[in-house]
Amino acid sequence: MIPFMAVVAEDMTSVLLEMINNSSTGSIEVDVNDFTKTLANDVIADCVFGVNSSSPREERNELYKMGTEFFENNLKEVFLIILVDLAGATMSETENEATENIEGDLRDIFGLSPVEPYEDSGSEYVPEQRSRSSSRSLQDIFGDSSIEDNEEGQSTVFTNKNTRKRMRKENLWKKNVRKNKRARGEAYVNTKGVLIPAKQIDKGIRCICNQKCHEKIVQDRQKQLFSNFYALANFDLQSAYLYSLIHVVIKARSHVRVRDTTSDRVAGNITSKPKEFSRLYHLPEANGKHIRVCKSFFKQVLKVSDGRLTRVLKNKPLGDPAPIDKRGRHIPSNKTPETKVNEVKDFINTFPKYDSHYTRHKSETRQYLPPHLNLSIMYSEYKSKVEGSVSKYIFEKIFNENFNLTFHAPVTDSCKRCDNFKVQIDACDNNELSKKNELTIAKELHLRKAESAMKNLKLDMQNAKQDNDTTVIIFDLMKTLPTPVISTGISYYKRQLWTYCLGIHNAGTDEMFMYVWDESTASRGPQEIGSCLLKFIREHVHTKRLIMYSDQCGGQNRNIKVAVLCMHIVSSPQFTVENIDHKFTVSGHSFSSCDRAFGLVEKQKKYFPDIYVPEHWNNVILAARKKKPFKIVEMKRDDFISTKALETNITNRKISVDRSKVEWLKIQWILYNKSHPLSMFFKYSNETEVLFTEIFGKHKYKEKYVRYFTKMVASAMKHREEFQIYRPDVIHLLSEARKGRLKHDDKVSGERKDFGFASVPESVYGKKTVSRVWDHLDLVAQAVTFYLNGFDNIAATLSFALHELALQPEIQERLVREIKQHHTRNGGRLNVRSIQTMKYMDMVVSETLRLWPPETVLERVCARPFNLGKPNPKASTDYVVQRGERITIPVWSIHRDPIYFPNPKKFNPERFSEQNKANLNMCYMPFGSGPRNCIGSKFALCELKIILYYFLLFIEVYPSKRTCIPPKLSMDHASLQVNGAHWLMFKARSQF
């Protein structure tokens, strides 16, 4: 194919020389992006499709137009076609129709031909199917149901406040603090202000009784018993403990006193009554066995008094349990009768009450009385209707302790579903208990879903202030603002101009942005909401994860237009966001920071009685909050975008991958992830434990492109077969492959062995016998793949090569000298062998591919476990890449690493001289490496060298005033390209 390349290069050079000669300055300024694409298009058209210089220019221009349009408009789709095929999603009716049209074109050209299944015996590696959770960032989302406990290892329990009276914290009362310290044996200050020291066990307690108690209970055990007793920290528990350790038995024997006579008792000489019971004191050993001890030892170990022991054991002989401390627990003598309390409750219940849907997370029972009421009015009404009324103090006490009521009306709207549930439940009679229970359960589920959403919102807002790699935003659209607002009566009868305001609150920075526009600029649909979000994310979100909260308005937030925009954000290199969680709060329960901000604006509006133009609303918004004023962003017409192009490139699925119907109105959480660019994950719950369901929005193939390339390849093959035309190009090779005549040439001649240092050796994989029947779509796909890969990448590499040569004229002159020597030595002829003799040409091309590689990253899947060793000096274990894991190789970063390429930003072809090649090792890979390298590397190198050969032979290139130094790369292309036009100056070379 080298002669075809040479002809195209010569023709293009002739056209440029003619343009230079016709210019008044003897030079022309050229956008090399456009120039090299045209040149690459003509080379590929000639070598692949047989559209050569003798073909009409219109045919080549049409191919160029279709190729450019397809590649630029379908940039992501070109690389997602493989993902689509691997996903195995079912085609829609439109896609089936397009496929039938293409097959119809092939039948018209070739007729029907059977297609046999593919059989391949030559590949040792079979890739695994695409996994839903292959992304490391999604492992926690799919299937992780672990729930963390709090610091104490117990789940947090929330109790609802059922009364208006604030909860008393009795444990903080001074008397209870004093009582608790006393029970724990700690030092405390008594009611007289005297400091009572802490209880301490005596060192070396010795017992003089016959039982030798101190030998049975050693000193360490004594301390342990003392600590355990006061660790109970409760007077009643300690009493029960003492009660269990002391046994009361009937006395075994009596001792008769000499003076113990009846006359003595009558005279009162004997004051003590003979005891009837004996007390046996015990202390437990470590094994739980009780050891009998004397009373003195028992009291010294536990530090208790005779009086406490007497009170604990007072009623034990009667079989009563351990006594409970009744101090402060008696019923007051002046307690209000229960009948009066119920009378007050019944009276309060006669007032109508209203529910709120935004305070349930604080109190499920909070209700609202009409705002014109207060306690004084209610008590006056009570006194006028009830005889023998209680005092106002008691009335207020009953109101506060038995009801959870407040007087101001809720400042937010109600929930329609809750109102509907209430009406249906109230309408059920006693015979419809089952229906009533079902409605009650449904209402409770609805309320719990609302609580879960608000709970997640608060948790995410807290995490956003601590996690530097996550941004949490809440957005909502304010109610429309009318213009003008004037006191003139006629304004009430005229059509007003509406101003729209979208509030976006950044929870991490606590900043509120107000995106404002009026209806003459744009509407207030999902594309307008998406445009504001896109502008905010582009300017203010620089994290990898984004969490968005909004209400469930389907016409603005929960729809396919916002969904495809989020897919675009996570897949576009313009944004840092790789993961978007869009969570929806329940309507009627979604009082958020945006609602509070809108309330401030409404409150401030009364200070601006006259508003004549929409811009005046900005003054109201700015004045609404003094501390951290709202940031106003005025949206212009150019700021609004259309998602139509994004929508037309995917199929809006009505079913998920598990074949279940997608109910958009019930979706509570949508996830978008960069590693799944055409997928949307959703669930009908805000609970993290619930797994996501996937919708795969399959790419819509552009039928006109597919039909165009199909017809071109098929027609060319059919034409050559009919007229027995032989032309050694890709079409010929594909025809031979279809007929089964194409074989791998194991014996490569010396002149074809190497096309340059940048080319990669062919792999032994794929050389084995392959049993396959090629259908016509296979052949078309091969030709189009060859065209697309050779079109944009070759053009970009040529552009950067000319750019570097223009900036470094000494390198350009040295290369030109080598080209002239070759031209003279070979009589202007080019072939494979002569191309290999131009060593400096190979060095220049190799350095261009190093500095500006056509593929900035390579992706591979690990075929078997591979040990990479320790990842860093501090690591203790090796890092092993497991089979099936995806590996990303950053070619751009490796090529610019100073460890492998000193002074990497400098264009230096000497890196690839004969003496320096050995130092490069495996760090140079412009076309990849291994079995799955670029099969077109030799073709690409030939094309690059031949075009540079003819171009530099006759034309000199140097920078112009508009040359971008250093080049600023575009973020909108898959291959490396300068942002905007890539301007260089061309002039004819003076000497040859």
UniProtKB/TrEMBL annotation:
The keyword Heme applies. Its main location: endoplasmic reticulum. It catalyses: an organic molecule + reduced [NADPH--hemoprotein reductase] + O2 = an alcohol + oxidized [NADPH--hemoprotein reductase] + H2O + H(+). One of its GO terms (molecular function) is iron ion binding. This is unspecific monooxygenase. Residues 117-139, 318-337 are annotated as: Disordered. Heme binds at C934. Belongs to the cytochrome P450 family. Coiled coil: none annotated. Its EC number is 1.14.14.1. Keywords: Endoplasmic reticulum, Heme, Iron, Membrane, Metal-binding, Microsome, Monooxygenase, Oxidoreductase. InterPro entries: Cyt_P450, Cyt_P450_CS, Cyt_P450_E_grp-IV, Cyt_P450_sf, Insect_CytP450_Detox. May be involved in the metabolism of insect hormones and in the breakdown of synthetic insecticides. GO terms for cellular component: endoplasmic reticulum membrane. It holds the Pfam family p450. It is a peripheral membrane protein. Its cofactor is heme. The keyword Kinase does not apply.
